[in-house]
Amino acid sequence: MGKNPKPTGQYAVGTMTFTAKEERDEVLHPGAKRRISARVYYPVTKDSVIGIEKAEYMSRDMCKGIKDAFKLPINYDNETAAGNNVSECYQDAPRIAGEKFPLIIFNHGYQSFREGNSFLCIELASHGYIVMTVGHPFEGVCTEYDDAAPTFADKQLLKTANKPMIPNIIALNKLTKAKGTDEELVKMIDKYQERFGRFLINRLPEWAEDIYTALDHVKETMDDMVDFDKGIGLAGHSFGGAVAYYLCMNDPQFKCGANIDGMLFGQYHDQVMDKPFLMIACEEHEVLAARVCCMHSAPAYKAVFRDMKHVGFSDMKHAIPKFMSGTTGKLDADLMHVNLCKCHLYFFDAHLKENSKIADVKSNDVIRFEIYK
User: Fold this and answer.
1) What is the CATH number of the domain that holds 214?
2) Which residues neighbour 141 within 8 Å (Cβ) at sequence distance 6 or greater?
3) Measured between alpha carbons, how far is 135 from 143 in angstroms, rounded to an integer?
4) Number of structural domains in the chain
5) Distance between CA atoms of 318 and 222, rounded to whole angstroms?
6) Does residue 1 lie in a domain region?
7) pLDDT (tens digit, 9 = 90+) per residue, 298-324?
8) Which residues lie below 8 Å from residue 149, measured CB to CB, with a gap of 6+?
9) Residue 2 located in a structural domain
């Protein structure tokens, strides 16, 4: 594994996991009940973690799930022996008594995993946010639980999501190269979804229910540390970003949201987003930001990263760079991470903390940043 970025905020970061009780039937595997797990990253004092070992980054099961999903020659035992398998946070570190922080809920991408964007989540927590990232069973490479064996990816689901494969690839390639106004691009995207997006559109409510199950657990057990009066932020990578948009569009308890390089699956037609929303994309996927840029009544933001590819927005750009370089882009991993975190902190500081002294984010050699008011 590569060298993990270290958090830069005023806090150290604690982490804990939970498995929420759920009575909902598992529609992907009839006869079973859906189990929802989550990992929480939270601010702690730096003094409180002195002498505590850092949390494990990747379990043996997670390593197996990633290895099987992407056909990668990674080895859990080798990484552990090399001392590289640690996360920049501390398992079950002591909470800060009497202090509450805003909540951000993060969703991993389709066939990714609960900790797939942990470097971003840890950085946000170090700046005074509680970040909960939710696992979605059978649709992540490995979903781990506190009280049961993990579930691994159902590989058939990804094939189902992309059927018919070759026409889908051709249509998506044509869409990403399309030219036109944002309004015209929205119509093209909707036309694409009508033919190829039905499966993922139908998965949106299920992933939303996963979020509600985990959120109910947080409300019941973490009320002493979460500042719900600030509202709840949402973020996600790929399909997880589409879920963030879906929940922001449909539920007033969510105050703002961010999407990292995900198509906005969903049947929105002429609906207008009335919450602040941030769209982050690589250059080849900029067209996917069209709806955010033109269908809004609250401030909308777009950050386009140069020399990036889709998978590069996850931990994989740092964690296993030599195996994933073809899918993560040429942009330096540290530059990507710094700018990705900067965009999120700028956005959530403004709309969850309502901080009038937030640092400005401007276009630079890595990103092109635009605000639509």
Assistant:
1) 3.40.50.1820
2) 62, 65, 66, 68, 69, 70, 111, 112, 113, 152, 153
3) 6
4) 1
5) 31
6) no
7) 999 999 999 999 999 999 888 776 555
8) none
9) no
